[in-house]
Amino acid sequence: MGWKLPIQTIQKPPADARAWLRTWYIGNIHLWLIVAMLAVGGILHYTSSLVFYSRNSPFGNVEHSMDRVLFMVPVIYGGFVFGPLGGFITLSVATLIMLPRVFFISASPVNELLEISSIVFVSSLVVIWFSGQKKEKERRQEALAKFETARQELASHIEIITKHERRLAAINEVGSLVSQDLELPRIFHRILDKVVEMMEVPVALILLKDKTGQKLELADHKGVSQDFVQAMANLSVGEGFNGRVALSGEPMIVENTSEDSRLSVQQVRQEGIQSQLIVPLRSKGSTIGTLCVAVRSSRRFSTEDVELLAAIGSEVGIAITNARLYQEILAAKEKYQDLFENATVAIFVHGLDGVITAANNAWANLTGYSLPDLIGMNVSRLFPPNVLNIITELDQKLLQGDSMIMPLEVRMVRRDGAEIIVSLTNRLISENGQPSGFQHIATDVTERRRMRDTLNYYIRQILIVQEEERKRIARELHDETAQSLLLISQRLDGLTSDPHSNLPGETRTYLEGVRVVVVKTLNNLRHLTQDLRPRILDDLGLVAALEWLADDLEKHTGLKVRVKVAGPQKPLRPEAQLLLFRIAQEALSNVRRHAEATLVDIVLEHGQERVRLTIRDNGKGFHAPVNVADLAAEGKLGILGMYERARLLNGTVSVSSELGKGTIVVASLPI
Question: Rounded to two decimals, what is the model's pTM?
Answer without folding.
Answer: 0.34
